[in-house]
TrEMBL record, chain A:
PANTHER family, sorted: NADH DEHYDROGENASE [UBIQUINONE] 1 ALPHA SUBCOMPLEX SUBUNIT 13, NADH DEHYDROGENASE UBIQUINONE 1 ALPHA SUBCOMPLEX SUBUNIT 13
Protein task: Complex I functions in the transfer of electrons from NADH to the respiratory chain. Accessory subunit of the mitochondrial membrane respiratory chain NADH dehydrogenase (Complex I), that is believed not to be involved in catalysis.
Region (Disordered): 93-120
Keywords assigned: Electron transport, Membrane, Mitochondrion, Mitochondrion inner membrane, Respiratory chain, Transmembrane, Transmembrane helix, Transport
GO cellular component: mitochondrial inner membrane; respiratory chain complex I
Topology in the lipid bilayer: Single-pass membrane protein
UniProt key word NADP: no
Top-level lineage group: Eukaryota
InterPro entries reported for this sequence: GRIM-19
Official protein name in the record: NADH dehydrogenase [ubiquinone] 1 alpha subcomplex subunit 13
Transmembrane segments annotated in the record for this chain: 20-42
Protein species of origin: Endocarpon pusillum
Family, per entry: Belongs to the complex I NDUFA13 subunit family.
Automatic annotation (TrEMBL), chain B:
Cited function: Accessory subunit of the mitochondrial membrane respiratory chain NADH dehydrogenase (Complex I), that is believed not to be involved in catalysis. Complex I functions in the transfer of electrons from NADH to the respiratory chain. The immediate electron acceptor for the enzyme is believed to be ubiquinone.
Main location as per UniProt: mitochondrion
UniProt-annotated location(s): Mitochondrion
GO (cellular component) term, any one: mitochondrion
Any one Gene Ontology BP term: mitochondrial electron transport, NADH to ubiquinone
Family statement: Belongs to the complex I NDUFA8 subunit family.
Keyword terms: Disulfide bond, Electron transport, Mitochondrion, Repeat, Respiratory chain, Transport
Name the record gives this protein: NADH-ubiquinone oxidoreductase
PANTHER family: NADH DEHYDROGENASE [UBIQUINONE] 1 ALPHA SUBCOMPLEX SUBUNIT 8, NADH-UBIQUINONE OXIDOREDUCTASE
Amino acid sequence: MPQDLPPAGGYEAVQYKRNIPIRGLQPVWYLVGCAAIMAYGWRKVFLGNREKNELGREKMWSRIYITPLLQAEEDRDQARRYFADQAREKELLGSTSRPYNSDRFVRPTITYSPSKVTRD
Amino acid sequence: MARREPQFNQTVLIDPTPMPEHIPKVEEIGASSAPLMKAYGRGELECMKEGRKVTRCAASVLKDINQHCLDEFRQNWNCLDNHNHQMWQCRRSERVLNRCVFEKIGLQKVIPDTPKGDVPVHLRDKQLFANRRSVLYPGESDVGVLKERFKSEQRQGS
C-alpha cells in the first residue's frame, strides 16, 4: 500500500499569528506616562517638604527668641513664692531651715494653699 | 469613678503674697504660660537682675511697636487669630508690619541657619501652604508697592 506523503514542495505555512494592527499606544508609553505623573507629584512633595522645614525653623527660632522673656517672668514668680514661703516659715517657726543639702533652687513640690480661697 | 472633688485644683494653689520690698518692681509682660526648665538651679534667685532687664527691654519694644506701628501690628495679629496662628497664611500683613518696624524702630526679622542662597521663608512671594498662595497682588513689586509699569498705566488712566 502506498504511503501518504507530503505534497511536492512541502506543506504551506500554518497561520497561527493574528494579523491585526496594534490599536492605540504601545504599552511602554502608559508606563512612561505613569512615571511622569509620579515624578511631577514627588517634585511637589519635595518642594513642600523643603518649605515645611523652613516654616519649622521659623517657628523654633521664634520660640527660642521668646524663651528669655518667659523664663524671666516664670523665675520671678518662683522667687516671689520662695520669699513668701521663707517669710511664712519665719513667722511660724521663728527660723528658716533648709530641707536640701545643696544651694540649688528646688521648685517646691509641696505648695502652700491659703485657708481662705479668695482671688480678686 | 471620680466622684470626689479634686483637692489640688488650681484655685487653691494661688499664692497672692507680693514680692518683698527689697526687690525692685518690674511691670510684667504677662506672657508666661508654661514653666521652662533651666540649666542651673540657682538662676531663679541669682539672675533676677538680668531677668528684669529682659522684661524691661521687651516692654520697651512692645511700647515702641504700639506707638509707631499699631495699625499694622493689629492687622497682623487679627489675621493670625483668624488663621489658627499659621504664619504662612498672614505673610502679607506680616511683611507690612516688618517693613514698618524696620523703618520706624530699626528692628529686622532674621531666621538664623536658613540655607544659603534661599529666600528666607517669611520673604517668599509664594507660600505653598497658604490658602492664597501668592503674597503679592497682581502688579505689585512689594506688598503695597506698585511696579513702575503699573504706576504709569494708572497715571494714564486717571
